[in-house]
Specification:
Elements lengths: L1 E5 H4 L16 H17 L4 E5 L8 H15 L1 H7 E4 L4 H12 L4
Parallel strand pairs: 1-2, 2-3
């Protein structure tokens, strides 16, 4: 099973910061409304969540930590890493940042 989330089309092309209380399109809201349900949907089997990163104006580090970091903190970095596939032709630095600065440090 595979679930795809195109962040720009299904969430917002302009992303906010960490918390909902600080403004729209936060990492907290993305985690709760998009990322967590998709992950839980595939986590029972060997499914994957495909995250399409292209199309946004950019990625605040606080957005990334609150969404992808929260998932790793709650479900384990290795388990999450094995379930998520990133697709991008523009934001390879985001993939590297998530892997090195969030998931590698969440053990």
């Amino acid at each position: 099973m595979e679930t795809t989330i195109n962040i720009a089309k299904e969430f917002s092309p302009v992303l906010g910061g960490r918390w909902e209380r600080l403004g729209p399109h936060s990492g907290e809201k993305f985690y709760r409304d998009k990322l967590l349900p998709a992950y839980l949907n595939v986590s029972e089997g060997n499914g994957k969540v495909v995250i399409e990163l292209d199309g946004t104006k950019g990625y605040p580090s606080s957005f990334l930590d609150q969404s992808f970091g929260e998932l790793a903190r709650n479900y384990g970095a290795e388990k999450v890493r094995n379930a998520i596939i990133f697709k991008t032709s523009v934001f390879q630095w985001v993939v590297d940042y998530i892997n090195q600065e969030i998931w590698d440090k969440t053990k």
